[in-house]
Write a structure and sequence with these properties.
By secondary structure, the chain is an all-alpha fold. Helices cover 77% and strands 0% of the residues. It is built from four helices and no strands. Helix 2 packs antiparallel against helix 3 and helix 3 packs antiparallel against helix 4. The longest helix is centred in the middle third of the chain and has 61 residues.
């Protein structure tokens, strides 16, 4: 039986221990390096590259706004305008006659007012004389006559005011017809020019604008005259109401 001595075992143990120490020493730098580096860092993900937007389309002005100058041309037929003008001319002659008659009536009524005022003064004087002379019958008769004349005077004054208002209305209506005739003349001038050249011809635009300006000015005057006629018509109705009131009193 083989006997192992202490000396024979020691070399074997030393060799094994040495091997373990060498292996541990070999792994130590790797662990120390891992501890120094810390936890693993995630690999950064590159940001997405933005896609460039398509270029904006150029602004195109609408056809309706491409030209800021509007050519204002009336579209009525020449025959229609001429027929209307003939009606205005006929109505103007009638209105001129009516205006003259109303002016004559107004003057006659003013003369009647003057005569009635004199008659009222005369009756008042007779009343005073009769009262002074203590003629009661003559005084009462003069007083009754004076009241009758005063009532007639009030009615004639109201009628004269009505005729005056009607006369003013007739004059304004004549002026309205004059403005309407001028507007039709300007419209006919535009129509005549339109038959010669095109309204949208740039070389003729200035001429058309001048004719259109004259036409629009005439239309504005006609509208103003129409407003004056309506205002006077209101005063005529007021005068009629006042006359009715005087007649009913």
């Amino acid at each position: 039986m083989r006997h192992f001595t202490r000396s024979s075992i020691m070399p074997s143990l030393s060799s094994r221990r040495l091997a373990v120490l060498l292996a541990t020493a070999a792994l130590l730098p790797v662990r120390m390096l891992s501890a120094q580096q810390g936890p693993p860092v995630a690999t950064p993900v590159p940001a997405p590259v933005p896609t460039p937007a398509p270029p904006a389309a150029p602004f195109v002005m609408p056809a309706s706004a491409a030209d800021t100058i509007e050519v204002i041309i009336t579209s009525r037929s020449v025959d229609t305008v001429r027929a209307e003008k003939d009606q205005f001319l006929s109505a103007r002659r009638d209105m001129e006659t009516q205006w003259a008659a109303l002016r004559d009536q107004t003057q006659r009524l003013k003369y009647s007012i003057t005569e009635l005022e004199r008659a009222v003064d005369a009756a008042s004087e007779r009343e005073k004389v009769a009262k002074k002379e203590k003629r009661d019958a003559d005084r009462i008769a003069a007083q009754v006559e004076k009241r009758r004349l005063e009532r007639s005077l009030e009615i004639v004054e109201a009628r004269a005011a009505l005729r005056q208002a009607q006369s003013e209305q007739a004059r304004l209506e004549r002026d309205l017809l004059d403005a309407s005739i001028r507007a039709d003349d300007a419209e006919l001038a535009i129509a005549e020019r339109r038959t010669q050249v095109l309204a949208d011809d740039p070389s003729q635009r200035g001429a058309f604008q001048e004719l259109t300006n004259r036409w629009l000015q005439a239309l504005r005057t006609r509208a103003a005259r129409a407003y004056d006629v309506e205002d006077r018509r209101f005063k005529v109705v007021e005068a009629q109401l006042n006359l009715l009131k005087r007649q009913r009193d």
